[in-house]
Design a protein that fits this description.
With about 240 residues, this protein is of the alpha+beta class. Helix content is about 25%, strand content about 25%. The strands form 2 sheets. Strands 1-10-9-8-2 form a 5-stranded antiparallel β-sheet. The protein has a 5-stranded antiparallel β-sheet with strand order 6-5-4-3-7. The N terminus and C terminus are likely disordered.
Length: about 240
């Protein structure tokens, strides 16, 4: 082997000055000068990264909360969207890494009527996601047990109207608004109090999560909803097994 400065391939230093040869990869240049090119290293493919989600408590600046509540009261779209907890799930969760999360049915909403506690179970019977209407399909309580609710005959008509862009039934896109509309026809006449805290279960991939939402300013139909906490619920049983 030659000493320092000796050419490994004769003439390579001279040929390498050629403007075309100089632009070639070194292995190609060596082979073109009679040398043996080194075998290029094989780079192993990297695995597709799994999207990470942010869990734990969610905090907002008081000024931001007040701004959203004012906008909701004035009918500004950014605030109005936050009157609907399912829209908050769809709109605010992606920023925490939940790019494909869907509400895992049923959506359970507790409510109080004449001093007694009940639970309503709601689902989206036709479309899931932001464009699907919500209906009550079961009620439970100490005084009534668990009672199935027969879907109204107009369910498909309501969904079809929304699909055509009509605003008549937009309230059914909000599960709490849909509940308030349906309860009188189910025997709950008068004042019904819904909670200012909801826990909604969502699923993304093979895992599910519990998302807590609260109404930080006003309670009831006029109050905005915001994320308060996101925590893991665990893998779905029977999925991926």
């Amino acid at each position: 082997m030659g000493g320092f400065g000796t050419e490994i391939v004769p003439g390579l230093r001279r040929v390498a000055r050629h403007p075309v040869i100089a632009a070639l990869p070194i292995a190609v240049a060596i082979a073109g000068c009679g040398g043996s090119a080194a075998t290029p290293a094989v780079v192993a493919p990297t695995a597709t990264p799994v999207p990470r989600v942010a869990l734990g408590r969610v905090d907002y600046r008081p000024a931001y909360i007040s701004k959203l509540q004012r906008e909701a009261s004035r009918g500004v779209s950014a605030g109005v969207i936050h009157l609907n907890p399912s829209a908050v799930i769809a709109g605010d969760l992606p920023a925490r890494g939940f790019t494909s999360a869907q509400i895992y049915p049923p959506l359970t909403v507790p409510f109080t009527y004449q001093g007694r506690n009940y639970r309503a179970l709601l689902t989206q019977p036709i479309h899931s996601g932001a464009g699907g209407i919500w209906i009550v399909y079961a009620l439970s309580g100490a005084s009534i047990g668990t009672r199935a609710v027969k879907p109204a005959l107009r369910t498909r008509r309501i969904q079809a109207s929304i699909d055509r862009g009509k605003k008549t039934y937009d309230a059914y896109l909000n599960p709490l608004a849909a509940l308030r509309l349906e309860l009188p026809g189910l025997g709950f006449q008068g004042v019904v109090t819904t909670p200012s805290r909801l826990v909604i279960r969502v699923r993304q991939g093979l895992s599910s999560y519990d998302v807590t939402l609260t109404q930080p300013r006003l309670r009831g139909p006029e109050g905005i909803w915001l994320l308060a906490r996101v925590q893991a619920h665990g893998p779905e049983p029977g999925i991926g097994m």
